[in-house]
């Protein structure tokens, strides 16, 4: 059940926290955001017997709690989980918790983006308001009665066509007014400082100190 041992002795000295995700983009983003802190983010995919959590919650926070508890239970480590997605005003908050599978189970980012653009086809700019949401949960162990729950939002709107090559998810069609570009056109350090996930993580880090 143990993950692969890090070869870097400095990494070995850090507190290991299992990230309840096998999404390589999220693993990289969390590692970048936590680079200056004495923690090592270990993706649950490095463990051999952690089943995928059944995300049956009806809200972001419910799903994040389910994923964190599952990862902590099967690894014995403190666990960090997020449930994120995009809410579109014209769609009454959809895709919401179904953002990752908006175009169907197993659908990729391109298919999800295409479906969202089709759903908003013909809508003027002022009716394309949207926001990213992130609910972040930290559990010290699987039976933690007081998990830390942090929330971050990132306001913007949906473009009419993809722009940019960076990021993941809906980043190519999510317009960031402050920088007059899509989230996929932002350098990683800029995105991390202002994103929904970055804001939620900053709340978590403040709770740690």
Compose a concise summary of this entry:
With 209 residues, the chain is α/β, with parallel strands linked by helices. 29% of the residues lie in helices and 23% in strands.
Report the portion of residues in β strands.
15-25%
Question: What is the typical, i.e. mean, pLDDT?
Answer: 90
User: If strands are numbered along the chain, what order do they take across the biggest sheet?
Assistant: 2-1-3-4-5-6-7
**General shape:** globular
Structural class: alpha/beta
Counting H and I runs of at least 4 residues, what is the number of helices?
6
Helical content band: 25-40%
Radius of gyration: 17 Å
The ordered string of helix (H) and strand (E) elements is HEHEHEHEEEEHH
Question: Largest beta sheet, briefly?
Answer: 7 strands, mixed
**Number of E-type strands:** 7
What does this structure look like?
The chain is of the alpha/beta class. The protein is about 30% helix and about 25% strand. The chain is built from six helices and seven strands. The chain has a seven-stranded mixed β-sheet with strand order 2-1-3-4-5-6-7. The chain is globular, with a radius of gyration of 17 Å. The N terminus is likely disordered.
Descriptors:
single chain, 209 residues, alpha/beta, seven-stranded mixed sheet, 6 helices, 29% helix
SSE arrangement:
Blueprint: H1 9-12, E1 15-19, H2 24-33, E2 39-43, H3 60-75, E3 78-88, H4 109-119, E4 129-139, E5 148-158, E6 174-176, E7 181-182, H5 188-194, H6 196-208
Parallel strand pairs: 1-2, 1-3
Antiparallel strand pairs: 3-4, 4-5, 5-6, 6-7
Helix pairs in contact: 5-6
């Amino acid at each position: 059940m143990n993950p692969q041992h890090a070869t870097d002795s400095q990494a070995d000295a850090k507190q290991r926290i299992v990230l309840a995700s096998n999404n390589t983009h999220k693993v990289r983003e969390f590692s970048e955001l936590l680079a200056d802190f004495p923690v090592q983010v270990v993706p649950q995919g490095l463990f051999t017997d952690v089943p995928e959590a059944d995300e049956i919650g009806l809200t972001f926070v419910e799903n994040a709690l389910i994923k964190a508890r599952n990862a902590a239970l099967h690894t014995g480590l403190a666990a960090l989980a997020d449930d994120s997605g995009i809410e579109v005003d014209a769609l009454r908050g959809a895709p919401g918790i179904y953002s990752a599978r908006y175009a169907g189970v197993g659908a990729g980012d391109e298919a999800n983006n295409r479906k969202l653009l089709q759903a908003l086809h013909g809508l003027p700019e002022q009716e394309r308001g949207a926001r990213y949401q992130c609910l972040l949960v930290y559990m010290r162990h699987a039976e933690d009665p007081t998990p830390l729950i942090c929330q971050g939002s990132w306001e913007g709107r949906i473009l009419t066509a993809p722009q940019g090559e960076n990021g993941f998810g809906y980043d190519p069609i999510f317009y960031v007014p402050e920088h007059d570009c899509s989230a996929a056109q932002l350098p990683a350090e800029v995105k991390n400082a202002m994103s929904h996930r970055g804001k939620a993580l900053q709340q978590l880090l403040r709770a740690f100190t």
